[in-house]
# Entry
Amino acid sequence: MKRILVLILALALSISAFTGCGKKTEELNLYTWAEYVPADVIADFEKDTGIRVNYTNFETNEEMLAKLSAADGGDYDLILASDYIIKIAADEGLLSELDTSKIPNWENIDPIYQGFFYDPEDKYTVPYAPGIPLIVYNPDKVSIEIDGYEDLWDPSLVDQVGLMDTERVVTGITLKTLGASFNTEDLDLIRQAGEKLLELAPNIRMLHQDQTQNALIQGEINVAFLFTSQVALALQANPNFKVVYPKEGLGFGVDALFVPKNAPNKDNAHTFLNYILDGEVGARIATQTYYLCPNKVSYEYLPEEFHNSLMITTEDIPEGEFIQNISSEAEAVHNEIYTAFKAALD
Amino acid sequence: MKPRRQNRIWLTIVPLYLFTIIFVAGPLIYMFVLSFLTRDEVWGVVNTFTLDNYAKILKPVYAQTFLESLKLAFATTLLTLAVGYPFGYFMARLSAKWKKLMMLLVVVPFWTSALMRMYGWIIIFQSNGLLDKLLMGLGITEDPLKLLYSYPAVLVGMVYSLLPFMILAVYSSVEKMDWSYIEAARDLGASRVQAFLTVTLKLTLPGILSGVILVFIPSMGLFFIADILGGGKIMLVGNLIRDQLMTTRDWPFAAALSVVLTVLTSLLIRLYRKITHTTELEGIL
Amino acid sequence: MKKKSFKISNIFLAVLLIIMYIPIVVVVIYSFNASKQTIIWGGFTTSWYGEMLRDRSLLEALRNSLILGLISSAAAGIIGTLAAVGMARVDFRTKGLLEYVSMLPIMIPEIILGMVFLVFFSLLGLPFGMTTLILAHTAFCIPYVYTMVKGRLVGLDRSLAEAAKDLGASEFRVFFDITLPLISPAIVSGMLLAFAMSLDDVVISIFVTGARTNTLPIKIYTQLKTGVSPKINALCTLMLIVTFLLVFLSHKIGKKGTSK
# Structure
């Protein structure tokens, strides 16, 4: 058995020789979810610029922020994360102002995706993946016509619905059915939503953070509330699926890039931002991530069928409401009703 | 002469002593302190003393999660014992050559990612998945079963991941067992079953108990199994702690939950020591 | 009668073993699936293996994981063994407490351990990366080695060591010539287990890793966001083959050693 260890050591050494940690080169430490920035885009960037990209991953936004504040805004050069967490990071003073003179392609950003709450003056962020979550269902298996969140409560949908396992989204759409905002601070209203949410429990087949569209495609569920990229993937797999713009009101979210305060390689971060804001590169990203394309020059590079499959036009954007940070009391009630909801499942 | 020798032996403990104080006790004291602090409005913690975090655990919603978690942990432990005990027992009775091989075969799955093994179960359990296809192909069922995202699926996943701990714990205590006691019992006229119940079971009790603890403790916290196989519908203390850290950003509450969980598991181990009069766990631990 | 029951027990062992390996076999089979969907069999392909080998970050993650596992299980091996040997011989007031606290890393939910490590390391001003990973992993590897060695020492015949000492052997010689060979199976199995645990850890690693060090489990876990690529199936298959090869080789070498 001792020999196993020796053999593993030999193996590790041979692999390290194989991958080779070479001489000191220009680096870029990119921190985001796995596979969110297409591998071929990174590879081409490395080839074009000679900058080596260290692509490391977090699983949740909160993990990223915990890490970033522990490193006092250092360690990472470029971070791609969600709107609300960028707002927190900004309030914590962990962002570094962008030097747009180093980003000639800055002009390519579609202004409709700028000026949001997390960066009202467009000083810190570059939008990467905007999206509107939508309901998608399989009309062959569902007997009712779905046109809003309210229909998810329909008794005919017992054990057929899949939602994203994101507290504020699930409690949020319940608030919407009550005619309230995602971000209401009215604790009684949130509790009322909690009561209503419990009635949804019998219909829930699964709550997943990711991969919900696969469950829909594979017939595990017949109705799903999906992120934009998942909507596109579901439609790609089965064009018969129906997409619903919930009548109670749309949600909206943006994942954006920012440079942390003490980033070790700020110049390289700017070079990268400029690279992905190129029209052609932007189109390549959008066709692989299946999110909306925040680059107006990219539109001409986007294949026709891609536009059709998404079905979201920029006119819908102003209608969408962000899920924003709320007071800790309201947050605590959200958690309580969501925990109660989860306990009512199974 | 003697004191000097004692001194030298002391040196062997120094690395563990230092490491434990700096890198284990340090972080844990921080956790303990954190459980009495207050969360900041949006991000982080404020240094205001409070007992609210502990009071919050008693709220029905959260207390119920603890209870559910305990229930699942009990079910997992019982099932694991029911399967793992005979396995470990039979394994210990094999010839030396086979024993060694079986040992490796039991441990090797550990070396592949636990996540990928769960992924394997998903492929099998999903609707229209391998099991469904097999059952429908054999004409046993007509429609796809909804096996995934259910309590049984989580239970299978738990038992599957923790079984090796139980097997190795039972195995090592059966291996050490003095068979002459059983022979003696048999000579005195006990049937095989009687001998097993009165002698074997008693002699392997330490192994059983250490297996129980090794299975019970982690089954309270294995949140990713509940997430992946349970479709996010099964809420364990582990999930609750994860959510407090990662979505609600209430770190002090997460710390309080962890402190309670740690105390609970420590009590269990204490109980184990009381019952068995031993200080170390058998098998892997 | 005896023979028959022996057979039934063998069937039980075999069936259970097969069940244990079913999900692993499924993962292996689907590494050859041309379709990314697990519900469809898109035909046989080996292309995922090629893609995997071209994926630099995946290979780097594998290397990091192996190095991390080796160093932390080795460190745990040394610290844990020394302490187990020493603790068996000396008594001191805080012994029970020390033992209890050093065991805590495997009793506390990983996620909170990861979190407190994160905060604590940043308090100490340690740079996040391999160093912090090794420290955290060593912390949860020590209990495995320590308890294994301790268990072995309890069952050990002390008379041999006593006899050697009576014959005038130094403490040092007794340890290396007598105790160490006797406890080495326990050390090795403890370290192997620690290595396996380190190789599989996601939750703690994800908190204490730095900007340049991905580990393999982090890579796999975070991939769930976009879907598990069959590349990972391919990598797991290769790792499995390597594991079996190692086991087989060590078996072979072991046999040669004993026959000589």
The mean pLDDT of chain C is 83. The first helix of chain C runs from residue 2 to 30. The radius of gyration of chain C is 23 Å.
